[in-house]
UniProtKB/TrEMBL annotation:
Domain ABC transporter: 3-237
Name of the protein: Sulfate transport system ATP-binding protein
GO molecular function, one term: ATP binding
Gene Ontology terms: cellular component: ATP-binding cassette (ABC) transporter complex
Keyword entries, A-Z: ATP-binding, Nucleotide-binding, Sulfate transport, Translocase, Transport
Domain of life per record: Bacteria
InterPro entries: AAA+_ATPase (IPR003593), ABC_SmlMolc_Importer (IPR050093), ABC_transporter-like_ATP-bd (IPR003439), ABC_transporter-like_CS (IPR017871), Mo/tungstate-bd_C_term_dom (IPR008995), P-loop_NTPase (IPR027417), Sulph_transpt1 (IPR005666)
SMART domains for the chain: AAA (SM00382)
Biological source species: Dongia mobilis
């Protein structure tokens, strides 16, 4: 199912939760809505589900206007952040719920529902746990039951609101991979909300970066990570360093030193902010002078915190494996080269 979001706005009292959001989602795409808390991600997902009505704009499913249509009429599976399983129902009854509540005539018979529940239990790898109650499951298992319940109605569209938010890092990673496979094999169109950039970049075909009820940028994970369109996207993704600089006749000057790095042609003069990722900074024998502040060798991503010698600016510098053994000490003077600086006007 293809989804079209056309100029959607939504206010809560006088607060604009969504302000003219437009987005096209193709059939089979896995889309991440990524943004800080309060940016409007959940509101957009709820409007897609039919749980909330927009004030203006249209939602089209396969070119059909969904305005006024409820969740049940939209053929969507919906998974909330905190599982929201029915505590008094067994796992099997939870999964069957969406089928049990269908009006007579559309409801499969008991044997068919049982067959489908068993199939779904297999799919989410909980074969023997249909008789348990939610309180007897781990967080990851509960989340998979919630997914099975959402899939029971055979949705074309799967909407997920921070589905792995409450789980520990290892379980999250496993479930992510599993969910991506499930999406692919079932031919779903999926939209999920997250504020975790790693999750969005790893899982999605298309990342939609949201801020203050608007879309800042839409692109593949590579595009939004390597070619951020706005300062916000730069700062939200990848923990970029921010360095005040001046641009003089197309040349970039950082703390008194000219640096060689690519620069867009449309900004050749003035004060700017240079954005640079930790892995795009190289410790070198010449360049911008800096002083080592802290060394973090033992972390998963070894890095050094430095301060520019001639400006009160701290930077995070990634230590690639070949530098991991480099003799570095606190207070040591080093020089920095920048592989890629992206300068936006200040
Ligand atoms: P989070 O990551 O914290 O879930 P979000 O990006 O999903 O945030 P939304 O839940 O869409 O953000 O909320 C966007 C804004 O709209 C927030 O400022 C929120 O307080 C407000 N909001 C959401 N629902 C309502 C409501 N029912 N009544 C009033 N304000 C609301």
């Amino acid at each position: 199912m293809s989804l079209q979001i056309k100029d959607i706005s939504k206010r809560f009292n006088d607060f604009a939760a969504l302000d003219g959001v437009s987005l096209d989602i193709e059939k089979g795409e896995f889309v991440a809505l990524l943004g800080p808390s309060g940016s409007g991600k959940t509101t957009l997902l709820r409007i897609l589900a039919g749980l909330e009505q927009q004030d203006a704009g249209q939602i089209l499913f396969n070119d059909l206007d969904m305005t006024g249509r409820k969740l049940r009429e939209r053929q969507v599976g919906f998974v909330f952040q905190h599982y929201a399983l029915f505590r008094h129902m067994s796992v099997a009854d939870n999964i069957a719920f969406g089928l049990d509540v269908r009006p007579r005539g559309q409801r499969p018979d008991k044997a068919e529902i049982k067959r489908r529940v068993d199939e779904l239990l297999g799919l989410v790898q909980l074969d023997s746990l249909g008789g348990r109650f939610p309180s007897q499951l781990s967080g990851g298992q509960r989340q998979r039951v919630a997914l099975a319940r959402a899939l029971a109605i055979e949705p074309s569209v799967l909407l997920l609101d921070e589905p792995f938010g409450a789980l520990d890092a290892k379980v999250r990673k496993d479930l992510r991979k599993w969910l991506r496979r499930l999406h692919d094999t079932m031919g779903l169109t999926s939209v999920f909300v997250t504020h975790d950039q790693e999750e969005a970049l790893e899982l999605a075909d298309k990342v939609v970066v949201m801020n203050h009820g608007r879309i800042e940028q839409v692109g593949s994970p590579e595009e939004v990570y390597h070619r951020p369109g706005t300062a916000f996207v730069y700062e939200f993704l990848g923990g970029a360093n921010r360095i005040p600089c001046t641009v003089e006749g197309g040349r970039i000057r950082v703390a008194g030193t000219y640096v060689a790095a690519g620069q867009p042609a449309d900004f050749t003069q003035g004060t700017g902010i240079a954005y640079v990722r930790p892995e795009e900074i190289v410790i070198s024998s010449e360049g911008v002078p800096a002083i080592v502040q802290q060394i973090f060798r033992a972390s998963a991503l070894p890095r050094v915190e430095v301060q520019l010698a001639d400006a009160p600016v701290s930077l995070d510098v990634a230590l690639p494996p070949e530098f991991a053994q480099m003799a570095l000490a606190r207070g040591q003077r080093i020089s920095l080269q920048f592989r890629k600086l992206n300068v936006l006007p200040a």
